[in-house]
Write a structure and sequence with these properties.
Elements lengths: L4 E5 L3 H13 L3 E6 L3 H10 L3 E5 L5 H13 L5 E5 L4 H9 L4 E4 L4 H23 L9 E6 L7 H16 L3 E5 L7 H4 L8 H6 L14 E2 L5 E3 L13 H14 L2 E5 L6 H8 L3 E6 L3 H16 L7 E6 L9 H8 L3 E5 L3 H9 L3 H4 L4 H14 L32
Parallel strand pairs: 1-2, 1-3, 3-4, 4-5, 6-10, 6-11, 7-9, 7-10, 11-12, 12-13
Antiparallel strand pairs: 8-9
Helix pairs in contact: 2-3, 6-15, 9-10
C-alpha cells in the first residue's frame, strides 16, 4: 500500500487529523481532509485520490449521499467506511451506498491496510473478469543464483543484485529464499519478517496475484522478500508444486524475481531452474568449488537443460588463488560471463544488514554487482553515477534477457 494516495472525509476534524497521522506512519499518502458534501467532492475532483476513507455517523443521510456521489466520481477507487456504530444495518446501508468495507472504531492502521488491500484486489478481479481472455498478465524475469557448493557467496550476490535492480533501475523486485539448508536472506538484510514460505504454503490455495504481497516483507531498499522458514522442519511441507506456484505469482506481480538457492540439487532447485530465464552459476576460485561447478554443468547439460540460459559467475573471496579464470572456463566448459572482484567490504555489509550496493556503492565489489544488474536489465552506468549524482540513465543497449548478449570481467 506504499504511495497510495488517500482522501479522508470526516466532519470530526480532530479524529480525521489523528487518522491521517496514523495512516501516514503506515506509508499511505494522505492528500487531503474534507467534510461531507461539496467540500469532499471539490477536493476529490482536484486530487483524484486512489482511495477514500469516509466516516459514517447518524443521521446517515449526509454520509450516505456523500458516498453515492464519490462512487459516481471515482467508480474504480476503494471506499472504506469507518464508524463508531457497530450495527449491521448501518454497515449494510454503507455498502449499498458504495462502500467496499465497514470498519468500527477504533480503527488500527493494520485493519485499514488489510481492508484497502482486499478492496483493490476485489476491484482488479472484477476488471479482469470483464476483460476475460484479454486480461493482461505480466511476465517478470526470473533469475536464479545457483552453485553446487555452499559458502560461495550466492546469498550476498542475490541480495545485492535484487537491491541494485530496484535502486539503480527502479524495477519492482521480489527475492525468494529457497535455500533449504541455510536460508539467510532475511538475516543478511536485517529483516524481521512476520511471514515466510511456510506461511505461504499453508495458504497456497488462497494465494493469487492480488494478495501474494501480503506474504512478503519489504526491505527499506524497496525489494520485496519472501524468506525461508525459520525452522528447518517447516521445509517438509514445501513441495515443488508450491514453489512453482509462488515463483509464477511473483513473476506476474514484479519486474524481476531473484531466487537464492541451496548449494545442492533438490526437486525445489529443479523447479526454480526450469522457471528461470537466467541462471547465474556461481563459483569461487577454490579447487573444490570449481570441481563441483563442473559437475553441476555436466548434470544440467545431461538433463537437456537449455545451457544458453546458464552464465558462469566467478566470485573472488580472497586476493590469493592458484587458479586462473581461463582454467575455470576450460574445466567447466562455460565461458566466464562475470567476475566479482574481492572486496572485504562485501562481507561486512552483510553483517550490518545493508547490502554493499547501498552502503558503499563506490566500492569495487558494489560497482561490479551494480554493473551486473545493469547488464541483465539493459542499463548502463555513468562515470558519476554513484554517491552524489545517484541516478541511472535509461537503457542504451538490449537487455540481457532473454538472449544473453555478453558479459564483463
Amino acid at each position: 500500500m506504499a504511495n497510495i494516495r488517500l482522501l479522508i472525509v470526516d466532519p470530526d476534524v480532530n479524529y480525521r487529523t489523528d487518522l491521517k497521522k496514523q495512516l501516514q506512519r503506515a506509508g499511505i499518502v494522505v492528500v487531503g481532509e474534507a467534510d461531507y458534501g461539496a467540500d469532499a467532492l471539490t477536493l476529490i475532483n482536484a486530487e483524484k485520490p486512489d482511495a477514500v476513507a469516509v466516516a459514517w455517523q447518524e443521521p446517515s443521510a449526509r454520509p450516505e449521499q456523500t458516498l453515492e456521489s464519490i462512487t459516481l466520481s471515482l467508480p474504480s477507487a476503494p471506499l472504506i467506511v469507518y464508524s463508531d456504530i457497530a450495527d449491521l444495518s448501518a454497515a449494510r446501508r454503507a455498502v449499498q451506498a458504495g462502500a467496499h468495507d465497514y470498519l468500527t472504531k477504533p480503527v488500527s492502521s493494520k485493519d485499514f491496510l488489510d481492508s484497502l488491500t482486499k478492496a483493490f484486489a476485489q476491484i482488479e478481479r472484477r476488471r479482469f473478469s470483464e476483460l476475460g481472455d484479454k486480461a493482461p498478465v505480466s511476465e517478470g524475469v526470473v533469475i536464479s543464483l545457483f552453485g553446487a557448493k555452499g559458502g560461495i557467496g550466492k546469498t550476498t550476490l542475490a541480495t545485492n543484485l535484487a537491491v541494485a535492480l530496484t535502486k539503480f533501475r527502479h524495477e519492482s523486485v521480489a527475492l525468494l529464499d529457497i535455500d533449504t539448508r541455510f536460508g539467510d536472506v532475511a538475516l543478511v538484510l536485517d529483516l524481521q519478517p512476520e511471514k515466510n514460505i511456510g506461511d505461504a504454503v499453508r495458504h497456497i490455495d488462497e494465494i493469487d496475484r492480488f494478495n501474494v504481497r501480503q506474504y512478503l516483507t519489504q526491505h527499506h531498499s524497496g525489494i520485496y522478500v519472501l524468506p525461508a522458514p525459520t525452522r528447518p522442519s517447516e521445509w517438509r511441507q514445501v513441495q515443488p508444486g508450491h514453489v512453482e506456484r509462488l515463483i509464477k505469482l511473483l513473476a506476474e506481480t514484479h519486474d524481476f524475481v531473484v531466487l537464492d538457492t541451496p548449494g545442492f540439487f533438490t526437486e525445489l532447485v529443479g523447479v526454480a531452474l526450469d522457471l528461470s530465464d537466467l541462471v547465474l552459476l556461481v563459483t569461487t576460485l577454490d579447487v573444490s568449488s570449481i570441481k563441483d561447478c563442473a559437475m553441476a554443468v555436466d548434470m544440467l547439460s545431461g538433463a537437456d537443460f537449455p545451457m544458453e540460459r546458464v552464465k558462469l559467475v566467478i566470485n573472488h573471496q580472497s586476493t590469493v588463488h592458484r587458479v586462473d579464470p581461463k582454467q575455470v572456463s576450460e574445466v567447466t566448459g562455460c565461458g566466464v560471463f562475470w567476475t566479482v572482484p574481492f572486496d572485504k567490504a562485501i562481507a561486512k555489509g552483510g553483517q550490518l544488514g545493508s547490502p554493499l550496493v547501498m552502503s558503499k556503492p563506490n566500492s569495487k565489489g558494489a560497482r561490479s554487482m551494480i554493473d551486473l544488474a545493469l547488464s541483465i536489465s539493459g542499463g548502463k552506468r555513468e562515470r558519476k553515477l554513484f554517491g552524489i549524482s545517484g541516478d541511472v540513465v535509461t537503457a542504451e543497449r538490449e537487455p540481457l534477457i532473454p538472449a544473453v548478449q555478453g558479459g564483463s570481467e
